[in-house]
Amino acid sequence: VTKIQQGQLALNINRFDLVELVKDCCEHINPLHDYEFVFLGDEELMIYADYRRIDQVMINLIGNAIKYSPHKKRIEITVLHDDANATVAIRDFGIGINPQKLPHLFDRYYRVDAFGHQFSGLGLGLYISAEIINRHNGKIGVHSEVGSGSNFWFTIPLDDPSIS
Ligand code: ATP
Ligand code: MG
């Protein structure tokens, strides 16, 4: 099913295993296994979503987890579900985020300490990820603590969007 509406992100809905997507994405991003990915939760979870868009969200969130954890190589990825939603959480043990900055984090071009820190980027990855997840009627958010790390999560409804 392809839904295209003026001014909206186009989605191409497929049925696929979210756990497989997550593991494939980690393998592509970390071919030499410099980082230690730990997979928790479901061993398989079939969902209806746009595979390539959700892959882009994972690339953005895992990319951030790596970029903002220069000295901690462990990243935990949890896939869970309840009756209504799939949830993916990406936990790093990196620099963390000041709670005062959290409300702006998903804004376009927003970067914490844009001119102060040594990490390069445009401030677009989280903005794009939020657009994609909102378009799937999911939610995206983060729990974080400076110095201990961040836990970014998102949800995707489990129902078939073509039946409504
Ligand atoms: P881009 O993704 O466009 O290359 P970016 O990584 O700076 O650049 P976002 O991914 O949108 O942009 O993230 C916005 C800001 O949120 C980052 O600049 C960083 O300050 C903060 N941030 C995002 N993820 C993390 C994380 N896992 N740990 C600590 N800070 C983070
Ligand atoms: Mg980024």
Automatic annotation (TrEMBL):
Secretion signal span: none
Domain Histidine kinase: 1-160
Coiled-coil stretches: none
Protein name: histidine kinase
Native species: Mucilaginibacter ximonensis
Portion of the full sequence shown: 363 to 526 of 526
